[in-house]
Amino acid sequence: MKTIIIEDKERVEEIITRCDICYAGITDLEGNPYVIPMNFGYQNGVIYLHSGPTGSCIDMLAHNKHVCITFSIDHELVFQHPKVACSYRMKAKSVICRGQVNFLEDIEEKRQALDIIMHHYIDREFIYSDPAVKNVKIWEIPIDRVTAKEYAAPHNR
User: Fold this and answer.
1) How many CA atoms lie within 13 A of 12 on its CB side?
2) Do 117 and 104 touch, CB atoms closer than 8 A?
């Protein structure tokens, strides 16, 4: 079994779009890693997340806007020999994206981002009240760097 680097943009986007959550890694105020699972939307090289308008994550991002977003699919425990522990490996595909958070403030841009997030999960139209849109923090993360890998791929690939 081997690890394959995925460079094809379509394969990378397929991994992202098949995920139902992502993991957002940020840096806390003491400089330590802080990772949270989040719902997301993705379109044209940009990841969209949402949260409440205040809180510890917002405080952390005000201090350091760098984020690392991880996506992972197709998890399966595989092995080469059932009695040899070190022959076991988790088969999976993953994408790691890095960028900086921009917070959207324009109400129409926020509605568009909410549509992108919602369309990731369900194909229908939504309406959003002005108070609800004003009270949500929209994270826009243009992807600066991306890496993708397939783990435990057969050697013949």
Assistant:
1) 18
2) no
40 with 48: CB under 8 angstroms? yes
* CA gap 25, 99 in Å, rounded: 11
pTM for the predicted model, two decimal places: 0.91
Q: What digits encode the pLDDT tens for the residues 24-68?
A: 999 999 999 999 999 999 999 999 999 999 999 999 999 999 999
Burial of residue 59 (number of CB atoms within 10 Å: 0-12, 13-18, 19+): exposed
The CB density around residue 57, as the number of other CB atoms within 10 Å, is 20
Which residue carries 């969209």 as its tokens? Answer: 48
For residue 56 the two structure tokens come to 């510890």
H/E segment holding residue 115: helix 107-121
